[in-house]
Amino acid sequence: MPELVLNRVSKFFGETVAVDDLSLSIGDGEFVCLLGPSGCGKTTTLRMIAGFERVDTGTIKLDGEDITDQPPQKRDIGLVFQHYALFPHMTVAQNVGYGLKVRGHSRGKIDEEVEAALSLVRLGELAGRYPSQLSGGQQQRVALARALAIRPRLLLLDEPLSNLDAKLRDDMREEIRRIQKQVGITAIFVTHDQAEAFGLADRIAVMTHGRLRQMADPVSIYEQPASALVSGFIGQVNVLKGKIVALDGGRARAGIDSGLEITGIAANLGPGDLVTSMIKQERVVLSRHRPAGSENVFSCKIAARTYLGASINYQCQIERQTINAIVPNHPAFERFEAGESAFAKWSSADCRMFHA
Amino acid sequence: MKRIVAGAGWAYLGAIYVFIVGPLLFVCAASVNGAAAFPAAFEGLSFRWYRAILNHPEFIAATWTSAMIAAVSSAIATAAAFLAGYAMLRGRKKEDPVLSTILASPILVPQIVLSLAILQFAALFGMGTGLLGLLAVHTVHGLPFALRLVMTGLARFNFSLEDASLSLGAGQLTTWRQVTLPLLRPSLIAGFTFCFILSFVNLPISLFLTDAQTTTLPVVMFAYIESRIDPMLAAVATIVVVAAAAATLTLERYLKIRLVE
């Protein structure tokens, strides 16, 4: 039984549509990431679920109950904020116990629950500290404990890692996932960071311009993007514009504006259609010797290279077309200097064509 | 060269202190001077002018009236300032320049005109001189100052703390009581105290609104000077200055609240 259901939800700020006819269902215990660039409506969606923004049209149901017009304090939804939002005049224990206190629980019960919540986030020993005495990572753990202490029906996290430095962010990501699984709570995590979304989510909901573009498990989102918008947002892609010249089942040949002819996967396209072709940069293979096969094999010149540590980014010139290739920095892969000649190749399965 | 610049700096600083604190010291000295005139050469330490106050019940009565008016009007002004500032800044909105200029406009009107205006305005509602008019004018006069101080606090207040409180199940009133007001306490106390002092020492805004039963300390002092000048006024002034300074120092030292930022 689906736990949270948004049905045709829209939100307007004056003339602009912040969230446009959004429908989605999230199952019990599921971890869903709302992923999209800033301004795509993901935070507004979260704030509507939490009850801080009025829903202009559509309904929100939680466990079958219509909560569209319920005030936030009645929803039993735990919230973790980007900037932690811990109460600075209360200790860690008082912060975590706040939700229980305003619900009128007894002292003994509050102490017990606070202890349980703090041990869940492994911060039991800091109960007496004030938020200003904690590091960013510790503050975020307290915020998580505070949200979970009320035993909410749903946990919402609004870019909770974006204020932490890179190493801490990875640890905290694992920690959030561990805690979510341990508690078994349904969670929605808003982020603009793909790595975060892929690392955490059971399913990812990709949003741009206020609309839900695709909702699927991470592998499907990455390997079978539903549109050029999703494909362009996920990962690093080469974008080639052109026109379909031939079709054979799901495979298509397209003449690219720069003069190349490439093969790729296309759905619902006909000859003569204008297309946008997307090739993931890490799927472009570079070699000195001409590789086997004839599809999508081009001789090229290395125009520039950028050393990125774990990988090397090559800018290849195929006639008038520039293609970027990301190659692992590993002895098993050939290395090139700028100015060298090479062959670039990619599988037609790694080239997806969409209506332009 | 460096030494000259440093010397000039110290001299400048010294001059500021002399001109701010100097007149106060002069008043203090006059209050403990045994001489019968004011100003006069120092004739010897005496507290006769402090004792003289006790023979003027109108001063004592006016002090209580002033304190009451200051307390009530500052409380109203601070509460109104909180509500106005909260409404303007809630939801991470920018401060509304038109609204805050309107709320600050009493500063721009000469105070004596403000007093006259409130008198006429009160007459419209069938109220003459007296307590209500005085409370009104002191509240209006204090509001811009309270607003500035409360807005300073609100501008630094993180409104997502209120969201956090609501999401944890607290209602709006509980959220104010547990989160918003405790965190704004320094600005609210500063706003109240600042209004209180401004109200307590202000003469012109009260001028047209006092009557025989209800009159404020500065008005009584003013009336007293018109008939004679003796050091008793210096004694009254010294008590006011010492009380105000003590209040300010207490706030800054023990409550860590700065009146002027």
Describe the structure.
The complex is a heterodimer of chains A (356) and B (261). With 356 residues, chain A is an alpha+beta fold. Chain A has 8 helices and 20 strands. A 6-stranded mixed beta sheet of chain A has the order 6-7-8-3-9-10, with helices on both faces. In chain A, helix 2 packs across helix 3, helix 2 packs parallel to helix 4 and helix 3 packs across helix 4. Chain A is elongated. By secondary structure, chain B is mostly helical. Chain B has 10 helices and no strands. In chain B, helix 3 packs across helix 6, helix 3 crosses helix 8 and helix 7 runs antiparallel to helix 8. The longest helix of chain B is centred in the first third of the chain and has 33 residues. Chain B is globular, with a radius of gyration of 22 Å. At the A-B interface, strand 6 and helix 2 of A face helix 7 and helix 8 of B.
Which terms summarize this structure?
heterodimer; A: 356 residues; alpha+beta; 6-stranded mixed β-sheet; 5-stranded mixed β-barrel; elongated; B: 261 residues; mainly alpha; 10 helices; globular
Question: What does the secondary structure layout of this molecule look like, with pairings?
Answer:
The complex is a heterodimer of chains A (356) and B (261).
Chain A lengths: L1 E12 L2 E12 L3 E5 L6 H9 L6 E6 L2 E2 L10 E4 L11 H11 L4 H14 L15 H14 L4 E5 L7 H18 L3 E5 L2 H7 L2 E6 L2 E6 L1 H6 L4 H6 L3 E12 L2 E6 L4 E6 L7 E7 L4 E3 L9 E11 L3 E8 L2 E8 L12 E5 L5 E5 L1
Parallel strand pairs in A: 3-8, 3-9, 6-7, 7-8, 13-20
Antiparallel strand pairs in A: 1-2, 1-4, 4-5, 9-10, 11-12, 11-14, 12-13, 14-20, 15-19, 16-17, 16-19, 17-18
Chain B lengths: L1 H30 L16 H6 L3 H33 L7 H8 L6 H14 L6 H26 L3 H8 L4 H30 L15 H11 L4 H23 L7
Helix pairs in contact in B: 1-10, 3-6, 3-8, 3-9, 5-6, 6-8, 7-8, 8-10
